[in-house]
Amino acid sequence: MRVLLAGATGAIGRPLIRYLREAGHTVFGLARSPESARVLSEAGAGAVTADALDAVAVRAAIARIQPHAVINELTSLPAHYTAAELKEAAERDRKVRIEGNANLLAAIHDAGVRRYILQSSGFWYAPGDGLADESAPFALEASPAVAVGAHTYAELESSAARTPGIECVALRYGFFYGPGTWYSSEGDMGAQVRQQWVPVIGAGEGVWSWVHIDDAAAATVAALECAPGPYNVVDSEPSPQREWLPAFARAVGASPPPAVTEQQALDTFGADTVYYATRLRGASNAKAKRDLKFRPRRLEWLT
């Protein structure tokens, strides 16, 4: 199968190229620059020069490649996982996701490409009892940045669902961890935790759903063949912040994280950080395990 990957040089793009090629697929990636093209070539993917925000270029790329499937992993996230850098990157990230999604959908509709795989979120579900399945609503009325992000994912999925002739698989990934992500010993969060910058907030009851970057890539390959619809691509043991953060600290060689009250965290870090630590719900991967044969590894720092 010929597969065109948008966001091919991002955190999941690089391992995804490897998994696609190992499954026998021919992979092409959108490249905005000669450097991106070089990275794709070294990873074994064909490079197609096009900016996802350029509708004409995207249309030309898809007409040239004539892919059987398109995978959208577009993001524009900062190198450092801090409230300030995330806020600074938020407008660009939303623009890349929304406009890139629209350009890809228009181009594949015109080219007759049916299979479309879309990056979505498995951690921004509205609070509720138990783990959220795919029928649960997104957290559209959460803290400011969480609400904006939830609206973005809802808009992305809705746009794909409204496009005639498209079979969209929305992969609602958990928090990525592993090589090349923020959450690794070498990553930004590993460094922040070693510097004691990340506290357990209040009772730390916010439940986080994770996915190793390689497991996410494997599930994405499986999504080329599954029924359309949303799938929670998350680990089998979602854990509250009070459990995963101290375990992560041990795994990256850090001292136990500090503890602060919700009010202290609100004053220091803002409402979004408090929401993550205290209100996240966690998601069920039952559908992905059944339909994608998804078998995620146990969260590494809890083993």
Can you put this structure into words, describing what you see?
- By secondary structure, the chain is of the alpha/beta class.
- 42% of the residues lie in helices and 17% in strands.
- It is built from eleven helices and 13 strands.
- The strands form four sheets. The chain has a seven-stranded parallel beta sheet with strand order 3-2-1-4-5-6-11, with helices on both faces.
- α5 (144-162) links the parallel β5 (115-121) and β6 (167-173).
- The protein is globular, with a radius of gyration of 19 Å.
- 47% of the residues are buried.
Instruction: Give the percentage of residues in beta strands.
Output: 15-25%
| Helix percentage range | 40-55%
Strand order of the largest sheet: 3-2-1-4-5-6-11
Shape: globular
Topology:
Blueprint: E1 2-6, H1 13-22, E2 26-31, H2 34-43, E3 46-49, H3 55-65, E4 69-72, H4 83-111, E5 115-121, H5 144-162, E6 167-173, E7 175-177, H6 188-194, E8 200-201, E9 207-208, E10 210-212, H7 213-222, E11 229-233, E12 239-240, H8 241-251, E13 259-260, H9 262-268, H10 271-278, H11 286-291
Parallel strand pairs: 1-2, 1-4, 2-3, 4-5, 5-6, 6-11, 7-10, 8-13
Antiparallel strand pairs: 9-12
What are the key terms here?
42% helix, single chain, two-stranded parallel sheet, 303 residues, 13 strands, 11 helices, alpha/beta, seven-stranded parallel β-sheet
Task: Report a brief summary of the structure.
With about 300 residues, this protein is of the alpha/beta class. It has helices at about 15-20, 35-45, 55-65, 85-110, 145-160, 190-195, 215-220, 240-250, 260-270, 270-280, 285-290, and strands at about 1-5, 25-30, 45-50, 70, 115-120, 165-175, 175, 200, 205-210, 210, 230-235, 240, 260.
